[in-house]
Amino acid sequence: MKFGPFLRVLSVALVCVLILIGVVITEGIARRGGQEVLLAMEAVDPRSILSGHYVAIDIAERLEPGQHCPPDQNEAWVALTRRGGEIYGVAGGATSRERAQLVGPLPVKATFTCQEPIEEAPGIEPFPGSIRLDLDIDRFHINQADALRIEGILRDQTFDGPTRAYAIVSVGRDGRARLKGVQIDGERLELSWR
Q1: How many other C-beta atoms lie within 10 A of the C-beta of residue 14?
Q2: Cβ(170)–Cβ(32) under 8 Å?
Q3: What does the alpha-carbon distance between residue 53 and residue 34 come to, in Å, rounded to a whole number?
Q4: What is the pTM of this model?
Q5: Residue bearing the bigger pLDDT, 117 or 142
Q6: What is the dihedral of CA 109, 170, 164, 128, to 10 degrees?
């Protein structure tokens, strides 16, 4: 039986649609089945006209003077540890999942960089440092009004004030982090297919 060009193209398109649906369902299951954590966010300045409205995700944890950077920056795995409630932070890096579990209870495929805080000295004011976590999550698409409101809240955050914005992340059994949404001033805004 011979298939004409139209039926071949239609068959390929149908297979591609089925694969895409499978990926969406698989990622949704992984996002719901992972361990949910909150990670502190800072403001960045996104400008992309063609990408729609979004909040740029910059996961950054503050280090107060007297605190030090976690060990092993720029490794393939990062160990997260509980800071309080659902809030997690970086405990250190490792070359493998098994080694990351020795550093902290929740290993994730990621990297981090750290800048030490500046200690108080004669003529020098103390200044917090930061740990920046790269989970390959860079944006949260949302409607324009919420994106502008969240951007304003992120810009109003100060180094010495409380953290008002968190990324809601699901860490799956495979070690991948998947964005579920953001929490702004206690309000959860989650990804939705609706």
Answers
A1: 10
A2: yes
A3: 27
A4: 0.76
A5: 117
A6: -20
